[in-house]
């Protein structure tokens, strides 16, 4: 069920899902979130589909939340399903992120919301939310410290600085590191391998792992931040391409 912002393509037993807003570096606005939610529903509903691969158009995974849209009051979240309609979704089928180019902020969190990650060696992973007065509330603060050593996760979260796909591989953050341009092809091969296994067993594994993942205990902190002057200043400064002037209010 393709939309203007999100395309789907069936390749064997795999659904290839592509965020298609290259003019905005595939940033997530309300339309993208709705399109991703619909694509994931398509994956879940069809028994012939055994796995999904999530990627972005024109060699960019996603630059994260569309801050310009957010300033206009647009939400990139789907109630009950989280950022981009994915980060809190309870999927029974495996989903693999195929990352080329930027996976920044919410884009990185979309990848963290997948079961496996394949990344090009020159991809860029980062959580720059603190540079905008925010935190990585789409799962980054909770999930990243569980995927890599504590102090390395804190470096991501507190500095907001990115790392390459090659470095992400060294940290054990991604499953496969590929030459530039090959991430989707390798992810599709990996999806075929997953599809050889029993679907009920795969779904059971996902349920058990999900049960061990803590719920979003950060909601109160997010509410406070979203009401702050600093968060609006951070997003406004980004839209105006200038350095923010923090007040701590």
Which helices and strands appear, and what pairs or packs with what?
Elements: E1 6-11, E2 14-19, H1 30-45, E3 51-56, H2 67-71, E4 77-78, E5 82-83, E6 95-99, E7 102-104, H3 106-112, E8 116-120, E9 124-126, H4 140-147, H5 150-159, E10 163-164, H6 165-170, E11 176-178, H7 183-195, H8 199-211, H9 219-226, H10 229-239
Parallel strand pairs: 2-3, 3-6, 6-8, 7-9, 8-11
Antiparallel strand pairs: 1-2, 4-5, 9-10
Detailed description of the structure:
The chain has helices at about 30-45, 65-70, 105-110, 140-145, 150-160, 165-170, 185-195, 200-210, 220-225, 230-240, and strands at about 5-10, 15-20, 50-55, 75-80, 80-85, 95-100, 100-105, 115-120, 125, 165, 175-180. It has about 250 residues and is α/β, with parallel strands linked by helices. Strands 1-2-3-6-8-11 form a six-stranded mixed sheet, sandwiched between helices. The protein has a three-stranded mixed sheet with strand order 7-9-10. A two-stranded antiparallel sheet has the order 4-5. α4 (about 140-145) packs antiparallel against α5 (about 150-160). The longest helix has 16 residues, at about 30-45. The radius of gyration is 17 Å and the shape is globular.
């Amino acid at each position: 069920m393709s939309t203007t912002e999100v395309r789907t393509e069936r390749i064997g037993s795999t659904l290839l899902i592509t965020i298609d807003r290259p003019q905005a570096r595939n940033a997530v606005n309300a339309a993208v979130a709705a399109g991703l939610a619909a694509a994931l529903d398509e994956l879940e509903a069809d028994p012939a589909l055994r796995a999904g691969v999530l990627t972005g158009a024109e060699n960019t995974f996603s630059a994260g939340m569309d801050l310009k849209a957010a300033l206009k009051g647009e939400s990139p979240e789907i109630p009950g399903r989280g950022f981009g309609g994915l980060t809190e979704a309870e999927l029974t089928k495996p989903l693999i992120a195929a990352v080329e180019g930027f996976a920044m902020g919410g884009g990185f969190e979309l990848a963290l919301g997948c079961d496996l990650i394949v990344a090009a060696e020159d991809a860029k992973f980062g959580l720059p939310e603190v540079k905008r007065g925010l935190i990585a509330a789409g799962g980054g603060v909770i999930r990243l410290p569980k995927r890599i050593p504590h102090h390395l996760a804190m470096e991501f979260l507190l500095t907001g600085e990115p790392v390459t796909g090659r470095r992400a591989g060294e940290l054990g953050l991604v499953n496969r590191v590929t030459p530039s341009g090959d991430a989707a092809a390798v992810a599709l091969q990996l999806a075929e391998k997953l599809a050889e296994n029993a679907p009920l067993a795969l779904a059971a594994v996902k349920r058990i792992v999900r049960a061990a993942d803590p719920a979003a205990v950060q909601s109160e902190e997010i509410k406070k931040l979203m009401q702050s002057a600093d968060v609006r200043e951070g997003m406004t400064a980004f839209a105006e391409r200038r350095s923010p002037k923090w007040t701590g209010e």
